[in-house]
Amino acid sequence: MPKAYWIARVDVRDPETYKKYVETAKPAFERHGARFLARGGRTEMLEGQARARNVLIEFPSLQDAHDCYHSPEYTAARAIRQSVSEGEFILVEGAE
Fold first, then answer.
1. Stretch 54-78: mean pLDDT, rounded?
2. N or C: which end of the chain has fewer CB within 10 A?
3. Residue ranges of the domains in the chain?
């Protein structure tokens, strides 16, 4: 089964509240086997619109990534994030 990747590109308006999102989301990521590959480091925009924060998370499967996003724990965290940021979130199945 191929791994899956959660790609998040976010502009944060309130960094202090965003920290609450990160802490609230942590149990969902742990429960679904998430592994952070990139988390807000330096970026270079080559094409398209840039976002201030870019995150790449690896999951054991597309189902795990999907279940994490829709879990009760992440649903609570998502409400916090959406109140203080704008962005795009994409789930991508990896190559086998």
1. 97
2. C
3. 4-43+50-93
